[in-house]
Amino acid sequence: MEDRIVFIGPDCWKEKNNPYFKEDKSLLAKWTEQAREEGLMLKVGRWDVPGKPVAILVDFTPFYQQKNEIYGRLWELYQVDSLHAYGDYDEASMFAFAAAKVVESFYKHNLDESKKVVFHGNEWMTGLGLLYIQQVLPQIATLFTTHATSIGRSIAGNNKPLYDYLFAYNGDQMAGELNMQSKHSIEKQTALHVDCFTTVSEITANECKELLDKEVDVILPNGFENNFVPKGATFTKKRKAARKRLIDTANALMGTNLGDDVLIVSTSGRYEFRNKGVDVYIEAMNRLLRVHELDKTILAFIEVPGWVGEPRKDLVDRLNSGKQYDTPLEVPLITHWLHNMSHDNVLGMLKFLNMWNRKEDKVKLIFLPCYLTGDDGVLNMSYYDLVLGNDLCIYPSYYEPWGYTPLEAVAFKVPCITTDLAGFGLWALNENEQRNSIVDGVKVIHRTDYNYSEVADAIKDTVVEYSKLSDYQVRKARTNAEKLSEKALWSHFITYYYQAYDIALRKALARTANRK
Question: Residue 188's beta-bridge partner residues?
């Protein structure tokens, strides 16, 4: 078999059709049969992405029966505290154990010590599997990448100042205070014991050192493939279609008659209201309402999945009619009804700030609270098809180990605003040799634990600045954004992986040599 990389994932779809995975029963058929005899319920095939790598999906649910024994052994060997587990801890751990059992079986049946093998796990969810492999197959090199420390994210998400006090925080103590003992424990012990410990940015490397008591061996920045970014006439056509769909939806919702001359901005990502800077984004849009020299109407979107109920039938009916309306719908702020309308953070802040998308407002803010997968029932376009319709993307994160959203934005030629608390923001500053204007493709705003108001003002000022750029300056900003994204291609970042794998393999080799 020429394939040299195998991905292992959970079999969540069971008997339903999995759109991301194509099963191939002829692939590794002999081993698959042996693995099933050993009690592993597997599907082998290929991940339906460019390159079509081998993928193995494993049903981890049978291992719940052994949960107590697995956790007990983990405590004996590494003092991992699973007693305080709740939420997704058990599910993640059983998958990690199942994945490790797959690796163990695959190695024993298909490989030997003449082969150099690396088991690479991402995030605390894979920690149990990494530690298991370290015990049962010491000849396999183990590599662990944390994309964010669980305790750092929790400190930030609980409105505690993370950065000014990072040197003083004790990770174990904070885990107890924030009820994060089990996740923190598995993450820390995995970091301490694997052959190579990595993270995705300088900012998170510092977090690991302070909260996990372990310095990373290598930083592995998140790379990007731009082969799905449309080119030439296709790009122009898709951008035009995206803008039309966004503007049509806004007009139907608000009873307005906005044209293509509006400045479309957006933020997106997980619904972490403070960590992702959704709060300061709303604040910045609110302050823009009072800028008298604003020449263009700003059409702003929040594309963050909430507890979505259903598409708004009244909005869909208006869109399907093709008519122009001059009266707004009820709650002209949101495209889908939520299960928790009265307790939603975005809607709550808009209500508090008295932002209702009035006819006279130069800034209109709309909440798209669903996953943009092309079948949401209102826009019915995928995120990647919509993002290129933006003029500007804004990601004012407080906690952001790397930041795929701004990287994706610039790859689609959309200049963006981010912060120096995001790994991508620091990387962009470095790559741009500290040039830091929106015309350079990325504007990086200085953010601290306490300068929320200054960040909101900086976003407001940058949007005003961008709205006044000449066509030539806009083209330059868009070109610079695209050029910056090309520096983050995997073809550039893969070298860090070679370095990390080399470290891991050398340690595994030394370990097995010592045992002989």
Answer: none
Cα of 263 vs its chain's centroid, Å = 26
Q: Which two tokens stand for residue 477?
A: 């900003």
Residues 6+ apart with CB under 8 A from 355: 282, 285, 286, 289, 333, 361, 365
Q: Mean pLDDT, consecutive 10-residue segments, the chain of 516 residues?
A: 87 91 95 96 94 95 96 97 95 98 97 94 98 96 97 96 96 97 98 98 97 98 91 97 98 97 97 97 97 94 97 98 96 97 97 97 98 96 97 98 96 98 96 93 98 98 97 98 96 97 96 77
How far apart CA 72 and CA 354 sit, in angstroms, is 54
Q: For residues 487 and 223, give the distance between their C-alpha atoms in angstroms, rounded to a whole number.
A: 9
Task: Give the separation between CA 513 and CA 516, rounded to whole angstroms.
Answer: 5
Q: In what order do the strands lie in the sheet with 21-23?
A: 6-10, 54-58, 42-47, 21-23
Q: What single DSSP character describes residue 38?
A: T
Between CA 223 and CA 232 the distance in angstroms is: 23
d(CA 57, CA 14): 10
Q: How far is CA 167 from CA 207, 293, 418, 422, 425, in A?
A: 9, 44, 25, 19, 22
Coil, strand or helix: which one is 499? helix
Name the amino acid, one letter, at 150: S
Model confidence pTM above 0.85: yes
Distance CA 109, CA 34 (A): 8
* Residue linked to tokens 């407080």: 398
123: tokens are: 């995030």
Dihedral sign computed on CA atoms, order 137, 142, 147, 150 = positive
Q: Are 272 and 157 in contact (CB under 8 A)?
A: yes
